[in-house]
Design a protein that fits this description.
Layout (H helix, E strand, L loop, with lengths): L2 H40 L6 H5 L8 E3 L16 E7 H4 L9 E10 L6 E2 L22 E4 L2 E5 L3 E13 L2 E12 L1 H7 L7 H22 L30 H6 L15 E3 L9 E7 L2 H11 L6 H6 L8 E8 L6 E2 L15 E3 L4 E8 L2 E9 L3 H5 L4 H15 L1 E5 L11
Length: 422
């Protein structure tokens, strides 16, 4: 074969490869456009597409999980609204009947109109993260960096004040946005049961961008700043009270576990906390009693006639000796349900009280001109013995929050609420 024929054959090969590459490139671009369009269509153009498609589990075809939600349609329905995205990658290997969803986002406006903000469940072990059948209370970490919001074990939620605007004729005062991985996707790509650092930071960026995009759509003048990198994971291991530095530092400073107030031995000797944040709308401190301390108290009081109800309901095997101190601010404080089973019992502004069904003491105040509710939920049957010893605990907690957040007009429960069998 002469050089001319070789050159013609080579040129044909090059052309064929180029045509194939162009076709493949076009197919790839079309596939990428379809994936991006699916995110935009499902989430109303509010979610940053590139960030969402960089999340774990996002591979393959993206479709809205329409059996879960119709997506975000700001003009068609009131808030809150949400979008849930399904991917081929997330669906592969899942059990029959699972949706294959990998990501969800929600947008809301305040007043939310939600039925309630529930306190922690007082009938489960708050520190038993090994139980796959219950959602145990968790202490969320503030995002920080001037962003009002927090990260959870699956995602991030943020809030942006937006006074003087409307949505569908209803006046709003703020907008919220959240972004999270599906629980199964999180579990598959987690690090020691928690979101990977890269994913935690990315979900915070998605939540902030979604809130800012919603604000732009509604005409809100302000925007949230870019969230910081390296947002801490949730704490999962309790520490001694005097080691606490965040939302439980008040308990250590008050010295309650080692003070005359705890001469009975009933008060917790371990705490689980998060960093404090003056921009979050909810904060939490978990307190627990270790096994050794539980045993000592049980042996000391099991036969005491003054602790009859505790004796009737408790045993040496009980592990649910814990308390949860929580505060709710602003819109979140409007309907705090003191019973996790039903939302008909709520804390009332301007007074304090006790819900015997939810095992929750509650106080109220005004923080930054907005209402606030402070609760102390106690597990059962621990509450039957500890109730009469809780007054200094709730008071120390409320005083600490009031100092940190500039709260006034504090109202605590009457002393008659601190009694066995309340």
């Amino acid at each position: 074969m002469d050089r001319g024929r070789w050159r013609r054959a080579y040129n044909r090969l090059v052309c064929a490869v180029a045509v194939f590459a162009i076709g493949l490139s076009g197919w790839t671009l079309w596939g990428l456009w379809e994936r991006r369009h699916a995110v935009d269509e499902a989430c109303g153009g509010l979610v940053p597409v590139g960030e969402a498609l960089a999340l774990p589990g996002s591979g393959g075809e993206i479709t809205p999980a329409r059996n879960v939600t119709d997506g975000i349609r700001l003009d068609d329905a009131p808030l809150p609204q949400s979008c849930v995205l399904r991917s081929e990658e997330a669906a592969e290997g899942r059990r029959l009947g699972e949706s294959g969803s990998f990501f969800s986002a929600q947008v809301a406006a305040e007043p939310t109109g939600w039925t309630s903000e529930p306190v922690d469940d007082a009938f489960e072990d708050a520190l038993d993260h090994t139980n796959p059948y219950i959602d145990v209370p968790q202490v969320y970490q503030p995002i920080g960096g001037g962003v009002p919001g927090h990260v959870t074990d699956t995602g991030a939620s943020v809030r942006l004040p937006c006074p003087g605007t409307e949505h569908r004729g209803e006046e709003i005062t703020a907008v919220r946005a959240s972004a999270g991985l599906d629980a199964a996707t999180r579990a598959e790509f987690s690090e020691n049961g928690q979101l990977a650092q890269e994913d935690r930071d990315r979900l915070a960026r998605i939540a902030v961008a979604t809130a800012n995009n919603l604000a732009a759509e509604l005409g809100c003048p302000d925007r949230l700043p870019e969230p910081p990198s390296g947002i801490p994971a949730l704490n999962t291991e309790p520490v001694a009270p005097d080691e606490a530095e965040g939302t439980c530092a008040w308990y250590g400073r008050a010295g309650l576990d080692g003070s005359p107030a705890n001469g009975s031995g009933w008060l917790p000797d371990r705490v689980l906390e998060a960093r404090t944040g003056d921009r979050v709308w909810q904060e939490r401190c978990l307190l627990s009693v270790t096994g050794e301390a539980r045993g000592a108290v049980y042996r000391r009081y099991a036969r005491d006639p003054e602790y009859r109800r505790f004796r009737e309901n408790s045993s040496m095997d009980d592990k649910t000796w814990w308390m949860s101190a929580e505060s709710f601010f602003g819109d979140a404080a409007d309907r705090v349900s003191t019973d996790p089973v039903g939302d008909d019992r709520t804390a009332v502004a301007g007074r304090g009280g006790y819900d015997s069904e939810g095992k929750t003491l509650w106080a109220t105040s005004v923080c930054g001109g907005e209402p606030a509710v402070h609760t102390l939920t106690v597990s059962w049957p621990y509450v039957d013995g500890a109730a009469r010893h809780l007054e200094p605990v709730l008071r120390a907690y409320v005083e600490d929050v009031a100092e940190r957040r500039g709260c006034t007009d504090t109202a605590l429960p009457p002393k008659s609420d601190y009694r066995e069998g309340s």
